[in-house]
């Protein structure tokens, strides 16, 4: 178990709720996050915790903080006997569509020795008041699907489920599948430049905005399908690329299935986004997955997919993807 030591004399740490102060709290926050999320933290999260500790040891100015630490700069901590034992952080989503003027709540954590005392509830209420005071229209968070205690708390506070999602991963060492038997009705190609609208319409059907859109912090918005020139330039300089594969209807009036293949220079994992019309699940999703696995099967692959799409989820298992984490996206509308 990680020990969380007070960074200051307890006399200077009045017990109870207060706003976070990264200049004094960063080291203890790193310890708390590592302890609270040990079972779900990925490699990037662990790297961020290490960076937080390094910054804490020689912290003079905050501009060098990583995104995780910057996201923790606003919110509340709970002090008990001079120890930092709880945290809730929040930051503006600064997104488009459903995320415009929304806030993101992260790192809802209470040290195990201090749980079931109402600390999380008090920190959450204070954070929700802060979001309201700053003009936020909504707040979103994600919680492990099996964390029934936290989900009950959020429901009591007025949050509602948007959608449950599962993160799937496939080891790059797994054998590539054999090609499927040819099916003349399935033709996989790249979209034409004007077909971003057809992709958007398919996404609106299978990933509606009020059910979480395309996934965590990926709202259903035209900017996801028709990138502005400045965004394409930024992606080019940062060595990010996205390839789109599509399957059209026979009369080519609709796009019925889409697979996005996203790569980044700093990532060893190729990320997939799969959108398939419900009438063609089990057919077009398999054709797209089989194609990408034969092309990129030597690289680790991951995708976040709605947990309620049973047909595709069974297909992912058959193609040797493993479920790594199941979460529920929850939302609170400030006006409610």
Strand order of the largest sheet: 1-2-3-4-5-12-6-11-10-9-8-7
The termini sit apart by 40 Å
Average of pLDDT:
88
According to CATH, what is the topology of the largest domain? Aminopeptidase
What oligomeric state best describes the polypeptide chains here?
single chain
Number of self-contained structural domains: 2
Major sheet, described briefly? 12 strands, mixed
Beta-strand content bin: 25-35%
Structural write-up:
This protein has 336 residues and is of the alpha+beta class. It folds into two domains: 10-136, Gcn5-related N-acetyltransferase (GNAT) (Aminopeptidase), CATH 3.40.630.30; 167-327, Gcn5-related N-acetyltransferase (GNAT) (Aminopeptidase, 3-Layer(aba) Sandwich). Helix content is 30%, strand content 28%. The protein contains nine helices and twelve strands. The protein has helices at residues 22-36, 43-57, 67-71, 119-133, 148-156, 196-206, 229-237, 284-296, 310-318, and strands at residues 16-19, 75-80, 83-92, 102-110, 138-144, 160-170, 188-189, 240-248, 255-264, 270-276, 301-306, 322-333. Strands 1-2-3-4-5-12-6-11-10-9-8-7 form a twelve-stranded mixed β-sheet, sandwiched between helices. Strand 8 and strand 9 (255-264) form a beta hairpin. Helix 1 runs antiparallel to helix 2. The radius of gyration is 22 Å and the shape is elongated. The two termini are 40 Å apart. Mean pLDDT is 88; it is low at 1-11 and 59-64.
């Amino acid at each position: 178990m990680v020990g969380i030591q007070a960074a200051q004399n307890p006399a200077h740490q009045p017990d109870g709720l207060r706003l976070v102060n990264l200049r004094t709290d960063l080291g203890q926050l790193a310890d708390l996050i590592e302890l609270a999320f040990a079972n779900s933290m990925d490699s990037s999260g662990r790297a961020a915790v290490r960076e937080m500790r390094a910054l804490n040891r020689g912290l003079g100015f905050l501009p060098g903080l990583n995104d995780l630490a910057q996201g923790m700069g606003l919110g509340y901590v709970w002090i008990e006997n001079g120890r930092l034992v709880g945290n809730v952080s929040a930051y503006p989503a600064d997104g488009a569509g459903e995320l415009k003027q929304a806030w993101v709540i992260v790192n809802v954590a209470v040290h195990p020795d201090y749980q079931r005392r109402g600390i999380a509830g008090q920190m959450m209420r204070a954070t929700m008041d802060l979001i309201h005071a700053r003009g936020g229209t909504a707040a979103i968070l994600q919680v492990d699907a099996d964390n029934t205690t936290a989900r009950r708390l959020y429901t009591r506070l007025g949050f509602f489920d948007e959608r449950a999602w599962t993160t799937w991963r496939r080891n790059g060492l797994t054998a590539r599948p054999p090609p499927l038997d040819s099916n003349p009705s399935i033709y996989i190609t790249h979209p034409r430049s004007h077909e971003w609208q057809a992709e958007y319409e398919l996404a609106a059907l299978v990933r509606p905005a009020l059910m979480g859109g395309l996934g965590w912090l990926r709202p259903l918005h035209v900017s996801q399908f028709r990138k502005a020139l400045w965004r394409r330039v930024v992606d080019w300089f940062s060595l990010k690329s996205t390839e789109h594969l599509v399957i059209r209807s026979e009369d080519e009036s609709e796009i019925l299935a889409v697979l996005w293949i996203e790569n980044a220079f700093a990532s060893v994992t190729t990320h997939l986004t799969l959108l398939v019309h419900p009438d063609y699940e089990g057919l077009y999703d398999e054709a797209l997955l089989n194609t990408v696995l034969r092309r990129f099967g030597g690289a680790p692959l991951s995708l976040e997919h709605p947990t309620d799409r049973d047909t595709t989820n069974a297909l992912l298992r058959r193609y040797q993807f493993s479920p790594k984490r199941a979460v529920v996206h929850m939302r609170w509308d400030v006006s409610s």
